[in-house]
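RECORD TYPE: inverse folding
INPUT: structure tokens
STRUCTURE:
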């Protein structure tokens, strides 16, 4: 199987699949990309990208002639031997990963063919072994993705590592996958399937643990007068710790961390092991989102009939992804306390409107802040640092800003006449910071 000469199949063109297909095309490969959603496929054929990822629409347009979008598995099987499975694996009510879409893909692969299945979808450790029990002749490769929303193209084209898990009888297919990624220069990690599957879950669980840890430190800082931004800076200079994911705030969200942490916890539980640390990570993250309510009540008293502006809705900047976004919890809790909630997000409004029908969507940050009794910065969009905060202060009913991401310069905000409070920053305990 010579991956350099063959077309590449991509099954599932959601965020991971579309980024992967487009970047492989950028490397010069011919791509056949499948999705069961006919409307999505038709839109992609017209060059319309239905997700927000910086640079993706332009890259898709540049490589349009190398990518064929289809709703037929037969088209993929006729053209490609390496099939990258990029379907969704959402959590079930039990916390386990829903593998129904993965199983549907596997069931469509013909017996006795030379196709190889390359699993990009995040699946529990043991999934590959389960698939091989049902199709023992199917070459199966675990190649988990490590892309970050908002920088996915950069992450794909400049990976820090590429993990390729394969059993002994699938080495030829694994070699073909390695050749695909070789031009990107990232370190290749060749291992067994179960370990490759675990690397993805363990990586995200560890990063989530760092976030929950620094958020707990931030909460202690508020009680002791320390500043978590200074604490994190001092910690991060230790090469054993590193500065990444030590930004205190109102918790993590998105499609990966919550799902993968829960999946690893559930996987451990199904194996008879109680993963106590992950229970704490999840609990801290859920509580962190709600601490903003107490901060608002400290300044305003009862939130009944108060107008609160949420600046940003997406779980992070440079994406319109609302999955597990802190804004969902915040808006629900604020409304539960009787507050009127108005929000602005430069990208995620369309996605958020359906999920937050009782939240008024403003057309700009200044519109959202006009007449507000308080504002909460939820997503660190760059435009919020460029606002004329002195002018904003004049338009607000009460000039209170809770910086949920420690994104803005406290002195700049105070100089504009607002009361500033961050997460774990100095004087937060007394409402001055």
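DESIGNED SEQUENCE:
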């Amino acid at each position: 199987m010579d991956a350099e000469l063959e077309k590449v199949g991509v099954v599932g063109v959601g965020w991971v699949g579309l980024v992967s297909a487009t970047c492989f095309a950028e490397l010069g490969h011919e791509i056949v990309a499948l999705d069961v959603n006919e409307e999505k496929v038709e839109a992609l054929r017209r060059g319309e990208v239905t997700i927000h990822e910086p640079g993706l629409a332009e890259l898709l347009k540049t490589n349009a002639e190398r990518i064929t979008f289809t709703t037929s598995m037969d088209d993929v099987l006729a053209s490609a031997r390496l099939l990258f499975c990029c379907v969704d694996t959402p959590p079930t009510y039990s916390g386990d990963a829903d593998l129904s879409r993965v199983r549907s893909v596997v069931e469509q692969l013909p017996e006795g063919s030379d196709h190889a299945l390359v699993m990009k979808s995040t699946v529990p450790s043991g999934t590959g072994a389960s698939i091989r029990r049902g199709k023992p002749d199917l070459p199966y490769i675990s190649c988990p993705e490590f892309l970050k929303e908002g920088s996915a193209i950069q992450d794909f084209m400049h990976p820090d590592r590429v993990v390729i898990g394969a059993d002994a009888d699938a080495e030829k297919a694994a070699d073909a996958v390695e050749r695909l990624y070789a031009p990107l220069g990232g370190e290749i990690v060749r291992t067994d399937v179960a370990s490759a599957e675990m690397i993805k879950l363990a990586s995200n669980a560890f990063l989530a643990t760092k976030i929950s840890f620094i958020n707990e430190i931030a909460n202690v800082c508020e009680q002791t007068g320390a500043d978590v931004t200074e604490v994190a800076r001092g910690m991060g200079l230790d090469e054993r710790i590193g500065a990444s994911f030590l930004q205190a705030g109102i918790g993590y969200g998105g499609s990966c961390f919550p799902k993968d942490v829960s999946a690893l916890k559930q996987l451990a539980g199904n194996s008879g092991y109680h993963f106590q640390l992950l229970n704490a990570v999840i609990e801290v993250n859920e509580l962190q989102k709600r601490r903003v309510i107490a901060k608002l009540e400290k300044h305003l008293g009862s939130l009944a009939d108060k107008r609160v502006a949420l600046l940003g809705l997406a779980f992070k900047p440079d994406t319109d992804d609302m999955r597990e976004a802190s804004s969902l919890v915040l808006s629900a809790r604020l409304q539960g306390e009787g507050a009127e909630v108005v929000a602005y997000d430069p990208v995620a409004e369309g996605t958020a409107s359906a999920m937050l029908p009782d939240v008024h969507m403003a057309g700009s940050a200044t519109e959202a802040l006009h007449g507000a009794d308080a504002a909460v910065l939820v997503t660190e969009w760059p435009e919020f640092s460029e606002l004329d905060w002195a002018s904003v202060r004049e338009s607000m009913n009460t000039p209170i800003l809770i910086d949920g991401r420690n994104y803005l310069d406290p002195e700049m905000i105070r100089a504009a006449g607002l009361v500033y409070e961050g997460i774990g920053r100095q004087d937060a305990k007394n409402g001055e910071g």
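NOTES: Residues 390 and 415 are 8 Å apart (CA to CA).
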